[in-house]
Amino acid sequence: MSVNQSFFEKHLSYVEQELVRFIEEHTTNQELKESMLYSVRAGGKRIRPQLLLAVVGAFHQTVSQGAYQTAAALEMVHTYSLIHDDLPAMDDDDLRRGRPTNHKVFGEATAILAGDSLLTMAFQLLSMAQIESEQKLLLIQLFSKAAGGEGMVSGQAADMQAENQQITVEELAKIHEEKTGKLIEFALVAGGILANQPVEILEKLHQLAAHLGLAFQIRDDLLDVTSTTEELGKNTQRDAELNKSTYPGLLGLSEAKVALDEELVAAERTIEQIQVVTGFEARYLKELVKAFYL
């Protein structure tokens, strides 16, 4: 644990520096800048950057400035999505990471613009990253797909449309494959691309992402039911208030926990398959997977 924690602490500090530096240097409006930094500095687990860094490190590659920049761009898009999720027109939340949500501090208009800026600046940062041109173009294409109408935004739309509707577990999984899973998939596959891995290994990383993305969402649904606001740093029981379909709601608590464990076991098995083929240093990713268990 201590070895892995040291790895993530070291490399995430560079990601944090890149996040703040880029926003400060490339935002001319002061209030907009403060709004963006408010949400970026609110903390969070940085799961997506950690996954990207873990893959690069697992292939015994030096974690480069380009990897930090890609991870920072990824966190920008995730942060923008949280700002917009919390808006009155969407989930209408007033607490995020233990602090008032962005629109409660800066107003709805500025919060919308802060999200807009984080989204567009993420691609600005990735386009300027210290990455070989062919790799960079591929990353930009995959990032656009993961964040947009074939990925996160499409999943968010489907999630809202499913409110007050009776949907199946399969339909719910499809929603979260896009809403949550696609950025997790990008994190893992981008790590593989930056580590110069062949197509067959990238496909294994796709498989790993499918299991981790679903596990992440099941866990999130369970925590919304079983945790307190103080523990999570955000309002709990919100899914029920918004009449959203969730894994505990469709399966029951016990079966949802079983489903979570099944996805995590499958994720660990996929990591082991990659390890057999490549000599992959699995401990970084395995440590992250362990953190998904309840």
Plain-language structure description:
There is one protein chain. With 294 residues, the chain is mostly helical. It contains 15 helices and two strands. The protein starts with a helix and ends with a helix. The protein is globular. The protein is 76% helix and 1% strand. It has a single domain (2-131, 139-286), classed as Farnesyl Diphosphate Synthase, CATH 1.10.600. A two-stranded antiparallel ribbon has the order 1-2. Helix 7 (133-147) packs antiparallel against helix 9 (169-194). A hairpin with a 2-residue loop joins strand 1 and strand 2. The model has no long low-confidence stretch (mean pLDDT 92).
How do the helices and strands line up, and which of them pair or pack?
Layout: H1 2-26, H2 30-40, H3 47-58, H4 65-85, E1 95-96, E2 99-100, H5 102-106, H6 108-128, H7 133-147, H8 152-161, H9 169-194, H10 199-226, H11 229-232, H12 238-241, H13 247-251, H14 253-278, H15 283-291
Helix pairs in contact: 1-2, 1-3, 1-4, 2-6, 3-4, 3-9, 3-15, 4-6, 4-9, 7-9, 8-9, 9-10, 10-14, 14-15
Quickly list its features.
294 residues, mainly alpha, Farnesyl Diphosphate Synthase, two-stranded antiparallel ribbon, 2 strands, 76% helix, globular
Short description:
The protein is an all-alpha fold and about 290 residues long. The chain has 15 helices and two strands.
